[in-house]
Amino acid sequence: MRIDKILANIGYGSRKEVKKLLKNRVVTVNGETVTDAKTHVDPKKDEMTVYGEKIEYKEYIYLMMNKPAGVISATEDVREKTVIDLLGMEDAVYEPFPVGRLDKDTVGLLLLTNDGGLAHQLLSPKKHVPKTYYALVDGTVTEEDKKAFAAGIMLDDGYVTKPAQLNILRSGEIRSEIELTITEGKFHQVKRMFEAVGKKVVYLKRLSMGPIKLDGDLAEGEYRELTDEEIDLLKNRQ
Questions:
Q1: Residue 46 known to be catalytic
Q2: For residue 238, pLDDT beyond 80
Q3: Residue 144: CB atoms within 10 Å
């Protein structure tokens, strides 16, 4: 890749600003000063520095976020705070986007990447990627609800969901705790499924997506890069 494209992609400014950096002789490749913007570099093999600081180029970035309530799963919005606003500049420069979405008031696992191919694989309805949620539900969740969810629930628009696995953690007269695994992602699906059986979700948290589980060490609003093992799990899932 051209050195000016690499530097622009990782946040050193526009192509024009990068050319100025090169002209100022502050960029080196393998210890040699580079001033020509057209110089081709192999970012996987060559060592690059700017102002003496070693830089790392990544084509793709893969992030796990514990999404907090009150932010939306979008790349930009004129009114609302987005999950991208929670990223540091060193990660935002790669222009990641959320893989799917969580409602504004829903918390938990959200994956962000700039790898469009992987995002498509995870979001494709044909792939049936399982997503598990924890929820607090107003009302008594019953074994009948469990059977109904396993058979498929008809939503308010007439759509019948694919079979879902409902695990009742605590069934109370006023409020119940559950875990629910679904393999699709219709608009407000979990909430609408419970509304279909006369109950209301009052708190919703996504725990996992495919083979990736939310890191328990991440506080709401925090994020980290996926490990190489986690990336392999996502890319090689059957």
A1: no
A2: no
A3: 9
The pLDDT, as a whole number, for residue 127 is 86
Q: Using CB atoms within 10 Å of the CB of residue 173, give its burial: 0 to 12 exposed, 13 to 18 middle, 19+ buried.
A: exposed
The Cα–Cα gap between 236 and 233 comes to 5
Catalytic residue, chosen from 36, 42, 77, 103, is 103
Task: Find all residues with CB under 8 Å of 161, minimum gap 6, and list them.
Answer: 152, 153, 154, 155, 182, 184, 186, 189, 193
| Side chain identity at residue 223, one-letter code | Y
Q: What is the pLDDT of residue 184?
A: 93
Q: Model pTM?
A: 0.82
pLDDT tens-digit map of 129-143: 999 999 999 999 999
Secondary structure of the chain: what % helix, strand, coil (to 5)?
25, 30, 45
* 36's tokens: 């020509």
Structure tokens at 66: 């514990």
